[in-house]
C-alpha cells in the first residue's frame, strides 16, 4: 500500500511521540502504575482504540511488523482499519501471523500462541481505573493506589459470590502487578489473565479516553484477585473448536441459523487457521463456514 | 479476696488509665466566628461524650477535626492507639490516619448514604471493613456480616439487599453494624438519630446504648437533641458560636445548668 504524504511517520508528530514514550518508560519502571499523558486527537473516535494507537505510533519503527486483533480476530472492522491506518501512515509491513509480528495491538484478547521476548503487546483500554466501580473520585482512587488500600476491590468479588455463588466476573478481571499495584487488564477474558504473568513480551496499555498509559514489563508477576475459599478460575468449555478441534483455546459461541443451532469456534483466528494447516480438524470441518475460514 | 481494705483503696482505674483521646487548644475557623476554637478535653476509654449546641455552633466542625477528616488551624489531637501507641493525629502520616479510620475508629454519619455504599449489598457494606483489614475468606466474611445484622436487629434474609431498599432506620443501623464489625475502640457519631421518626429514634437509641455498654466503646456524639444526649452521654460539652460554654456530667449540666445559654437550651425543651 502506498504511504500517505503530508503526514509524519506513523501519523503522530515527533514531539508527541517523545511525550508518550516518556510516559511508557515511566509505566515500565513502575509496573501497573497509571501514568497520565497528554492524549492527542486521532482521526477516529475515542473508544475505537485511540489509546492503543497512540502507543503503537510511538513505539513502531520502519522494521516492525504489525498485527492488529479485535476479539481475537484479524478480520474485524476495528482490526482491519487500524492495520490499514499504520500501513498507510507508516508504511510498515503488516501480518496476521502471531509468530511473525513484532508489534501486536489488541482489543479483548491475548493471542493463544505464547509471545516471545522480541514482541510487544499493546492493549486498547476503555477504563484504566480498576477501583472506579467502588470509588468515583479520582483523587481518592489515586490515594488508594498510593497507600495500597485495595480491600475495597474485594467488595466487587464479594458481590459476585453473594449473587451468583461464584466469582462471575468473566472479563476485565482485576489483577495485582508485581505485588504492588492493582491493575485493570482491559476487557480481556479472565481466561487470558494467567498469560499476563511472567510473559516474555513487553505489555503496554493505552487508554485514549482517560489519557492513561500503564505497562507490565517482561517476566513480571501478575496475580488475579480471589478469595481463599473461592479461588481464581478460568473459563472452560465442554465443547472443542468446531473448525480445528482445539480443546484448550478460548471459544466463541456462533449462532448458525434461526433455529438455535450453534457452534463453538476459536476466537483467535490465526491460531485456529494454523491448527487447520497442521491437519487438525473439528466436528464441523465439512460445513461451508469452516471452509471459508480455512481458505484465508 | 475482697477485704474491706481492698474496697477502701482508691479506685485504681480512673486515676491511672491514660486518656484515649486528648485534645489541646484545637482551633478551626472558616471565617472569624465560623468554626470552633480553643477546645481542650480528655476522653477516657469507655466514656460517652456528648457535644450539644444549636445549629452552626461548630459541633460538626469539631467532630470532623477530631476524627482526622479536617485539618485544624492549630492545636493537637493525641490519640492513644492500640497499634501505633500514642500519636498526634495531624503530625503523623496520612496513611496511619486512614488505617485508624478503618480499624480502631468508626464514623457514623448523619445521613446514612454518606457512610454506606448504596450500590452494593448490605453484606458487602459490612464486609468491606473486614476485607480492608485483610480478611480474604468469603465464608467467614459472610458469617460475620450475618452476626452483625442480627446484632443491629436487621433480618439476615436482607443480607443481599442493597441499602437503597432499606428504610431510613435500617440504613442507620446498617451503618452502625458496618462500623462496629472491626471492633473499633472509638466511635464518632454525627446526629445519628436525625431525620428518623420518634419511635424509630427510640429503638435506635436503645440499640446504641446496649452496644456501647456491652462493647465498652468510647463515643463522641454530636447532637442538638438534648433527649438523645441525656440517654447516651456520660458527659456533656455545650457549644455556642464555636466555643465550649459549659462542660460537666450530663445530669449535672441538664438539671442544673450554669451558663445562661445552657439554661436557655434546657428550658426550650417542651415539657409535658
Walk me through this protein's architecture:
The complex is a heterodimer of chains A (296) and B (272). Chain A has helices spanning 14-29, 50-59, 77-90, 138-146, 151-164, 193-196, 269-277, 288-295; strands at 35-36, 65-70, 93-94, 103-107, 120-124, 175-177, 181-183, 202-207, 212-216, 222-224, 251-255, 262-266. By secondary structure, chain A is of the alpha/beta class. Chain A has 2 domains: 14-130 and 177-224, Bacterial phosphonate metabolism protein PhnH (Rossmann fold, 3-Layer(aba) Sandwich); 251-295, no CATH class. In chain A, a hairpin with a 4-residue loop joins strand 8 and strand 9. In chain A, helix 1 packs across helix 2. Chain A is globular and about 55 Å long. In chain B, a hairpin with a 2-residue loop joins strand 1 (21-31) and strand 2 (34-43). The N and C termini of chain B lie far apart (50 Å). Chain B is globular and about 55 Å long. With 272 residues, chain B is α/β, with parallel strands linked by helices. In chain B, helix 6 (122-132) packs across helix 7, helix 6 runs parallel beside helix 8 (168-180) and helix 7 (138-151) packs across helix 8.
List keywords for this structure.
heterodimer, A: 296 residues, alpha/beta, Rossmann fold, 2 domains, 7-stranded mixed sheet, 28% helix, B: 272 residues, 6-stranded mixed sheet, globular
What's the gist of this structure?
The complex is a heterodimer of chains A (296) and B (272). Chain A has 296 residues and is α/β, with parallel strands linked by helices.
Amino acid at each position: 500500500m502506498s504511504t500517505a504524504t503530508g503526514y509524519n511517520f506513523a501519523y503522530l508528530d515527533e514531539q508527541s511521540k517523545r511525550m508518550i514514550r516518556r510516559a511508557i518508560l515511566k509505566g515500565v519502571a513502575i509496573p501497573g502504575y497509571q501514568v497520565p499523558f497528554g492524549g492527542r486527537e486521532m482521526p477516529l473516535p475515542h473508544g475505537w482504540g485511540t489509546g492503543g494507537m497512540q502507543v503503537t505510533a510511538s513505539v513502531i519503527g520502519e522494521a516492525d511488523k504489525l498485527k492488529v486483533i479485535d476479539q481475537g480476530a484479524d478480520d474485524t472492522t476495528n482490526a482491519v482499519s487500524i492495520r490499514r491506518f499504520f500501513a498507510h501512515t507508516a508504511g510498515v509491513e503488516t501480518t496476521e501471523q502471531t509468530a511473525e509480528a513484532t508489534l501486536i495491538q489488541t482489543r479483548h484478547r491475548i493471542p493463544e500462541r505464547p509471545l516471545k521476548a522480541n514482541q510487544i503487546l499493546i492493549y486498547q483500554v476503555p477504563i484504566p481505573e480498576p477501583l472506579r466501580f467502588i470509588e468515583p473520585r479520582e483523587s481518592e482512587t489515586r490515594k488508594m493506589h498510593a497507600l495500597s488500600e485495595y480491600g475495597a476491590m474485594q467488595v466487587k468479588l464479594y458481590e459476585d459470590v453473594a449473587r451468583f455463588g461464584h466469582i462471575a466476573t468473566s472479563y476485565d478481571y482485576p489483577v495485582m502487578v508485581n505485588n504492588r499495584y492493582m491493575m485493570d487488564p482491559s476487557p480481556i477474558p479472565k481466561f487470558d489473565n494467567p498469560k499476563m504473568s511472567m510473559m516474555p513480551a513487553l505489555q503496554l496499555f493505552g487508554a485514549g479516553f482517560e489519557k492513561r498509559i500503564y505497562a507490565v514489563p517482561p517476566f513480571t508477576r501478575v496475580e488475579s484477585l480471589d478469595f481463599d475459599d473461592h479461588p481464581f478460575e478460568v473459563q472452560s468449555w465442554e465443547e472443542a473448536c468446531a473448525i480445528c478441534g482445539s480443546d484448550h483455546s478460548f471459544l466463541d459461541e456462533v449462532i448458525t441459523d434461526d433455529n438455535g443451532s450453534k457452534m463453538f469456534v476459536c476466537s483467535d483466528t490465526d491460531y485456529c487457521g494454523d491448527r487447520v494447516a497442521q491437519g487438525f480438524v473439528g466436528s464441523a470441518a465439512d460445513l461451508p463456514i469452516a471452509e471459508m475460514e480455512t481458505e484465508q | 479476696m475482697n477485704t474491706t481494705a481492698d474496697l477502701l483503696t482508691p479506685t485504681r482505674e480512673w486515676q491511672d488509665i491514660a486518656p484515649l483521646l486528648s485534645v489541646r487548644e484545637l482551633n478551626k475557623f472558616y471565617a472569624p466566628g465560623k468554626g470552633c476554637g480553643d477546645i481542650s478535653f480528655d476522653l477516657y476509654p469507655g466514656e460517652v461524650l456528648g457535644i450539644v449546641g444549636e445549629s452552626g455552633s461548630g459541633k460538626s466542625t469539631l467532630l470532623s477535626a477530631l476524627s482526622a477528616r479536617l485539618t485544624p488551624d492549630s492545636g493537637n489531637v493525641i490519640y492513644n492507639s492500640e497499634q501505633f501507641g500514642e500519636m498526634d493525629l495531624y503530625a503523623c502520616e496520612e496513611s496511619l490516619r486512614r488505617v485508624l479510620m478503618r480499624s480502631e475508629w468508626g464514623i457514623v454519619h448523619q445521613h446514612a448514604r454518606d457512610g454506606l455504599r448504596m450500590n452494593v449489598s448490605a453484606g458487602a457494606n459490612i464486609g468491606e471493613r473486614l476485607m480492608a483489614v485483610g480478611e480474604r475468606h468469603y465464608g467467614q466474611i459472610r458469617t460475620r456480616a450475618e452476626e452483625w445484622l442480627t446484632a443491629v436487629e436487621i433480618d439476615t434474609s436482607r443480607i443481599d439487599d442493597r441499602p437503597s431498599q432499606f428504610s431510613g432506620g435500617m440504613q442507620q443501623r446498617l451503618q452502625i453494624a458496618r462500623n462496629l464489625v472491626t471492633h473499633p475502640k472509638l466511635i464518632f457519631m454525627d446526629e445519628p438519630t436525625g431525620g428518623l421518626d420518634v419511635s424509630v429514634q427510640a429503638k435506635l437509641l436503645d440499640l446504641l446504648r446496649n452496644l456501647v455498654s456491652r462493647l465498652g466503646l468510647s463515643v463522641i456524639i454530636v447532637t442538638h437533641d438534648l433527649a438523645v444526649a441525656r440517654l447516651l452521654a456520660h458527659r456533656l460539652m455545650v457549644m455556642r458560636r464555636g466555643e465550649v460554654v459549659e462542660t460537666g456530667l450530663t445530669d449535672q449540666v441538664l438539671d442544673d445548668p450554669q451558663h445562661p445559654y445552657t439554661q436557655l437550651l434546657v428550658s426550650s425543651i417542651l415539657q409535658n
